[in-house]
Every structure is written in structure tokens, then in C-alpha cells.
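Supplementary Methods, section 5.1.

A reviewer requested that the exact input to the structure prediction be made available. We therefore reproduce it here, unchanged from the version used in the analyses.
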Amino acid sequence: MDERLRTSVAGLRLAHPVMNASGILGYLPEHVGTMVSWEVSAIVSKTFTKEPRKGYEPPIIVKLGYGSLINAVGLSNPGIEGIRPFAEAVKNRGLPLIVSVGGFSIQEYVDVSVAAEESGADAIELNMSCPHVKGGGMEFGRDPLVAFQLVKEVASVVRVPVIVKLGVSDKLLEVSSKVLGAGSKALTLINTVRAMSIDVFSFKPYLSNVFGGLSGRSIHPIAVWATYVVFRETSADIIGVGGVFTWRDAAELILAGARAVQVGTALAYRGSTVVRNIVAGLRRWLREVGAGSLSELVGAAHRN
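The structure derived from this sequence is encoded cell-by-cell as follows.
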């Protein structure tokens, strides 16, 4: 691997800046082989909650014609007991593991985070921005005081780095500052954006849950904006996510302030080679702009 592509975020050392986004596989041991084949630099699990969740009934995904999806899966996962077998499968492959944690109370976030650390997670990503589960996710990430308390409680009981995944809200900067002050070592920006799609012949919403989260190319400029403004105000370690299909998309987020990026919807559209292609493109980009390392370009858009 090209040494110039090495990066670190929240203290995690990565061979290159591209990992998967939470939600594309990632809660059963048999998923790990497929995820490793994507050639990501770290594996991010699907969100685990304390109790098992079946999720919503189909249809749960609408594939749009412009590189985007709307999904309402409902945080389906096997619950806290499923973390250890998944984590062990990842550790056997030698990749860093970031466990995504969700909950419906602060105590649930704490309990799942502790279980994730005990199971071997290298970092925890607190999902505080899921837009389609009532009472969880976004409810915690939109209130600065609640967000502060949640992160403070989790950071006080685990030793591995805590990363907070936030969505877009009118209090994004305030919440970002609060969670960093509470002990978050990095931010993941952004989650999906609340959206819906209606069948014009049946007159009914496509999704069983009516609305869901929009991902993919449609939200990429929003992700770049969020990364830029939060980095400008906080200089935080940021993992940029939202519509990363090509090396140019990843490069935009890096220039805005991201130290790493996550890929999700592109895996559904472009298949298992998308990460490899992004990494190869970033390598060429470094050479073309004369950069000695990726770290030289993190936040470079703020210096012009």
C-alpha cells in the first residue's frame, strides 16, 4: 500500500482513507468475507441495538435513477448478543473494527458500547442521526444538551475512541461542539436525509414505513458543506460520508476537512470494486497535485 495514502482518525491508523458506511451488511459473521473483499481500510458494522430488531416489512428500499437510494430498514440487527461473533470474525481478518451503536435511551447506548468494547471493537460510532426510527438516533443528535450527556456517559465507561455520527440539522455546529467537548474523538458527517417517494399510479408511498433516509449522490454536496463548516469551526477529526462514488467525491470531502471517508450507496450501484477504484484515483490525484501525503490535503480548501 502507498505510504502517502495512510491516514489516522480518532487515533485509528488506516492504510488508506476509505471504509464502508454503516448499514451495508455488517452484523453477521458471514458478512465479513464480503466486506473484506471490498478492500476497505476498516470495517464499520451495521448499527447494533440492545435488543434484537426485526426492522420494517418490505419494501424497505427505493432505488432512484440518479445514484441515490431511499431506505427504511428499521435498524434490523440481532441485538447485543450478535456483536461478539461479528467482532471475532473481523479481528481474524486483521482489520480495525468500528462498531456502530444505537439505542432508545442513554443507558442503552452505554450498555451496547460497553459490550462492543468488550467484544474487541477498536472504536465505537454512536448512531445519533438515523432519520427513520422513532425515539432513537436523530432524537438524540438534534438536542445539544442531550447529545452532550449521551456522549459523556459513553466516553466515561469505554476506553476505545468514541465517534459520533450526526445528520444535518439547524444545530449541527452546536451539537458538534458539544459532543467533542463531551469526549468524542471524531465525527462522522453525514447520515442519510429524511425523504420519501410516492407511486403515482397506486397513490401510495413506496416504503412500508412511508418515509426513509435518502443516501447517495443526491446528498453529496450537503456532506461536503457539513464537513467544511464543522471543520472550519472545530478542526475535528472528521469521517466524511454521503454520495462517495468516485475519487473526486472522496477528494472533495478531504479538501473540506475529512481525514477519512465512508462508502455506502456506491456499493449497491457499482459493486465490490468501487473502493479499489477510489483508492487508485486518490493515489493518482496525490501525484498530480504534487502532495507528499494525504494529510497535507486535509482541509486544504480552507487555506485558499
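The radius of gyration is 18 Å. These observations are discussed further in the main text.
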